[in-house]
Structure formats: C-alpha cells, structure tokens
Amino acid sequence: THCVSSISREAPKKRFFTIEADLTKIKKSPTVKFTKLRINKMKINSNYEGKEFIYRKDLDFESDYYNQFLTAPPTNITEQIIAWINESKLSEVITNRLGSSDSNLVLEGNINLLYADFSGGKIYSILEIEFYLSDNTKDQVVFKKVYSKKILSPDKEPVSIIRAWNQALTEILIALETDLRGVTI
C-alpha cells in the first residue's frame, strides 16, 4: 500500500501595521510657540477610511485583506501628530478633547491620499495631508497647507511600504512644525 500525504499550505495570516513618525528627527526648540493647542482627530478621504492597505494598479485600486493598519489611519496619524507636537515643544499644553477650557487654537486636517502606487513600474507610498490651524477667537483659519509625499519603496513588501509611509509622515511633520513656528497670530 502507498501512503499519500496530503500537501497542505498554511493560509496567509493577517498582518497589522502602524504608521509611525521618526521622533528622533524632531529639532527641539527652546521656545514654545503656542501656550495651548487643541488637535482634532484627522478626517480621511472616504476612499481610504478602511484599515486595509490600498494599492493602485493602473486605473483600478484594490484593498489588501491580509495587510492592514492596526488602528484606523485617522486615529493612528492623529496620535503621531500629537506625539510630534508634544516632543517638539511646539505647544505647552496639547489637548484633543472638546471643552470650554481648551485652547482657542485648533489644528485639524484631512488625509487626502493614503495608498501604495504600483501603476508605473516602481512602487511608491503616497501620503497627502491637508492641515488647518484655526483661531476660534477670531473665527478664522490662520494657516492652511497641503503636504504631499511620494516615497519610493524598494519593493512591494508590506514592511517596505509602511517604512515609506513612515518616512512620508516624518517629512510632512518636519515641514508642518517649521511652518507652524512661522505662523503669526
């Protein structure tokens, strides 16, 4: 009798990632720019609001069931912005809670783009965030800017793609901090 062993392959496992800015790139300033700053949770373009990685192939996009963000990107990126501003000493007190004792200055934004682009032969991690700084005492936006980064990924491995997104977020936060320090209110 012959024994036939069945060939079994393990089902792919889901992998979870977070976008993390490189806080070692912060140039700590001795001067505090804002006494109090409220940071509202980022909003996101509805095309990217899920937890799955999104890949652009050509004109079509696909989501990756097996490679996902651990936390929804708006929450993840908001937490990174808070950590950055806290570490950079851009503001003395940072809050993300609504309340009457909160700052008159509010930083908010929208994640316009968050995907990996496979459409042109090379692989890029794309991240675009639009920020607004509002002064509620004057009821006006005192600063508004779109930051867009397209970082080359060495390959299509999820770890490489997330590293490129990390670099994109780091570069965006470096530029945002520089710009916010230049805002006159």
Descriptive terms for the model:
185 residues, single chain, nine-stranded mixed sheet, 38% strand, alpha/beta, 9 strands
Contiguous runs where pLDDT drops below 50 for at least 5 residues: none
Helix content range of the residues, please? Answer: 10-25%
N-to-C CA distance = 87 Å
Please describe the biggest sheet, giving its number of strands, its sense, and whether it closes into a barrel: 9 strands, mixed
Question: Could you describe the 3D structure shown?
Answer:
With 185 residues, the protein is an alpha/beta fold. 22% of the residues lie in helices and 38% in strands. The protein is built from two helices and nine strands. Strands 1, 2, 3, 4, 5, 6, 7, 8 and 9 form a nine-stranded mixed sheet that branches. The longest helix has 24 residues, at 158-181. The protein is elongated. The N and C termini lie far apart (87 Å). The relative contact order is 0.20. The model has no long low-confidence stretch (mean pLDDT 91).
Brief rundown of the structure:
The protein contains two helices and nine strands. By secondary structure, the chain is an alpha/beta fold. The model has no long low-confidence stretch (mean pLDDT 91).
